[in-house]
């Protein structure tokens, strides 16, 4: 059980994952397969939540994802993930996906995803997580938006 007064700021959970896209990541059109991007998004979100909770986490919900631009083989995918919301045992992570052409340096923001994770204790039961300390107006706004998304998810259960 986490100390009920434990608190952590957003920076403490920030994760950047980068991976070069190889031919093995391609779909039939020769661009990156969406499933690879979804796997990396889930990994980045889980890492941010593990950093926040300092516990194992499982994915409980993934919001719909829209891919606005194809990602090319040879691009570097950069995923920036942060915790945007904490409940008792659940956390929402925001994951921004950027495709970078390593030769030209051109960077394209391809999508943003929101995922929810639950922290587990050593017996595999949901366990409390530190509260998120909000330090900027932007973080307060993000938490408000995240609360609405979480209420919507729960209403759909
Ligand atoms: C995640 C899991 C442990 C939750 O167990 P549970 O008995 O539903 O626990 P609870 O009802 O207490 O919910 C735990 C938290 O998850 C949140 N939650 C549950 N379902 C949710 C959903 N669909 N969307 C968002 N949050 C959800 C609850 O609101 C609660 O948050 P809070 O403690 O911050 O208030 C359980 O559902 C599980 O093991 N799921 C499989 C996870 C997994 O294997 N993921 C990998 C993908 S296959």
Walkthrough of the structure:
With 157 residues, the protein is α+β, with helices and mostly antiparallel strands. The chain has one domain (7-155): Thiol Ester Dehydrase, Chain A (Roll). The chain is 25% helix and 35% strand. The chain is built from two helices and seven strands; from the N terminus they run ββαβββββα. It has helices at residues 34-53, 137-155, and strands at 7-9, 15-20, 56-62, 76-86, 90-100, 107-120, 131-133. The protein has a five-stranded antiparallel sheet. The radius of gyration is 16 Å and the shape is elongated. The two termini are 26 Å apart. The model has no long low-confidence stretch (mean pLDDT 95). It binds coenzyme A. Residues 58-61, 87-90, 116, 118, 126, 153-154, 157 line the site of coenzyme A.
Q: Tell me, rounded to a whole number, the average pLDDT.
A: 95
Please write the string of helix (H) and strand (E) elements.
EEHEEEEEH
Structural class: alpha+beta
**Overall outline:** elongated
In CATH, the architecture is Roll
The CATH topology corresponds to: Thiol Ester Dehydrase, Chain A
**Fraction of residues in H or I helices:** 10-25%
The domain tally reads 1
Bound molecules: coenzyme A
- Low-confidence runs of at least 5 consecutive residues: none
Strand order of the largest sheet: 2-4-5-6-3
Largest sheet: 5 strands, antiparallel
Proportion of residues in extended strands: 35-45%
Q: Name the CATH superfamily classification.
A: Hotdog Thioesterase
From the alpha-carbon coordinates, what is the Rg to the nearest angstrom? 16 Å
Give me the number of helical elements.
Answer: 2
β-strand number? 7
**End-to-end span in angstroms?**
26 Å
Using the coordinates above, name the CATH class: Alpha Beta
């Amino acid at each position: 059980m986490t100390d009920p007064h434990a608190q952590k700021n957003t920076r403490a959970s920030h994760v950047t994952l980068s991976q070069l896209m190889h031919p093995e990541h391609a779909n039939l059109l020769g661009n990156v397969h969406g499933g690879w991007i979804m796997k990396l998004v889930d990994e980045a979100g889980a890492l941010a939540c593990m950093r926040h909770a300092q516990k194992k986490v499982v994915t409980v919900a993934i919001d719909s994802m829209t891919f606005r631009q194809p990602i090319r083989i040879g691009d570097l995918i950069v995923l920036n993930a942060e915790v945007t919301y904490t409940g008792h045992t659940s956390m929402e992570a925001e994951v921004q996906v950027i495709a970078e052409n390593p030769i030209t340096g051109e960077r394209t923001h391809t999508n943003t995803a929101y995922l929810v994770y639950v922290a587990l204790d050593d017996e595999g039961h949901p366990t409390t997580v530190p509260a998120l300390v909000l330090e900027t107006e932007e973080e307060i706004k993000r938490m408000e938006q995240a609360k609405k998304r979480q209420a919507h998810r729960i209403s759909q259960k």
